[in-house]
Design a protein that fits this description.
alpha/beta, Quinone Oxidoreductase, Chain A, domain 1, Rossmann fold, 27% strand, globular
């Protein structure tokens, strides 16, 4: 089977290879991939920025949906042909403080699909049964492939941050994560502003069509003034930074109100300089949000099933995996929103 493989650490070092079809181990399920999404972290991997997190050579890709193809020994509660998606956590230690408290996304021994073990930019991928979820009826494979980033958004909004009805929530970055985060914040009762910049016009229009209250451009609109006007001069109750841009993070700390909440989701991929005196001056509640866990997946699937969050409109381009370089270039250029790959012979 053809696969997109990170052959070694460093920039580039990514290519199409022929790989043998895997067989599921005991307790695993073999999934035939139907659609896989390109994540921002896949871009970082290709550009050589996540060297410490990788175990190459490895098939990359971790956002996907597919069909159960084969069952490993001991798996009896699901059958071939079931439409599924899966968590990125391939394995965790099960014994550390974080695993014992249900926060296994923070386990230091966590093995991740597409990083440490072969991922989804190919035809078949092995997944532990306990990380597998049936897709809700009415959710197609393209929309289902976005369950993973939706789970990340749920973890950030609902589990890490916490939003009260009526909160003014400012989301920086109208990419996939930002648009999903905005929808989850709306579902939680927030009044939501999404902030983009030049080149994000189509993405901001999509944000508006998805029910976001305000979609603005940081380079063309006075974001700070609008936030103050909408908050009786106080500032945003919640800021969630999804772009991984230093300028956006600085602006976010500037518009969050005193004793407000700031959550970092976007990956910078480098060391940045931030005016952290704002934290003590405003008593800002600062937190990060890393990946997702079972509780977030369960809520994400509920939001998909009930239609409170839409993922299908975010899928703008699809390429065969043999054209992964063109797909990646489109993603880097921010041409579209979610770029997906499909298996190829």
């Amino acid at each position: 089977m053809k696969a997109v493989v990170k052959t070694q650490a460093g920039a580039g070092n990514t290519e199409i290879q022929e790989r043998p079809e895997p067989s599921p181990k005991p307790g695993e399920v073999l999934v035939e991939v139907q659609v896989a999404g390109i994540c921002g972290s896949d871009i970082h991997i290709a550009q050589g920025e996540f060297n410490d997190w990788l175990r190459p050579p490895v098939i990359i890709g971790h956002e996907f949906s597919g069909v159960v193809a084969e069952l490993g020994a001991g798996v009896h509660d699901i059958g071939p042909g079931v439409r599924v998606t899966a968590e990125t956590s391939y394995s965790v230690c099960g014994h550390c403080l974080y695993c014992q408290s249900g926060n296994y996304n923070l386990c230091s021994q966590r093995q991740v699909l597409g990083y440490h073990v072969d991922g989804a930019f190919t035809r078949y991928v092995r997944v532990p049964r306990e990380r597998l979820y049936p897709l809700p009826a009415g959710v197609d494979f393209a929309a289902g492939a976005l369950t993973e980033p939706l789970s990340c958004a749920v973890h950030a909004v609902s589990e890490q941050t916490g939003i009260s009805a009526g909160d003014l929530v400012v989301v920086f970055g109208p990419g996939t994560i930002g648009l999903l985060t905005a929808q989850v914040a709306k579902a939680e009762g927030g009044r939501v502003m999404v902030v983009g910049t030049a080149g994000d016009e189509k993405r901001l229009a999509l944000a508006s069509s998805l029910g976001v209250d305000w979609a603005v451009r940081a380079d063309a609109d006075d974001v700070a003034a609008q936030v103050l006007e909408l908050s009786d001069g106080l500032g945003a109750d919640v800021v969630i930074e999804c772009s991984g841009a230093e300028t956006a993070a600085r602006m976010g700390l500037g518009v969050v109100r005193k004793r407000g909440k700031y959550t970092q989701m976007g990956i910078f991929g480098r060391t940045i300089t931030m005016p952290f005196d704002i934290l003590w001056q405003k008593e800002v509640q600062l937190q990060g949000s890393a990946s997702q866990k079972r509780s977030a997946w369960q809520r994400a699937l509920t939001l998909l099933r009930t239609g409170q969050v839409q993922t299908a409109p975010l899928v703008t381009h699809t390429f065969p995996i043999t054209e992964w370089e063109s797909a990646l270039a489109k993603a880097v250029a921010r041409d579209g929103v979610k770029i997906t790959l499909v298996p190829a012979d």
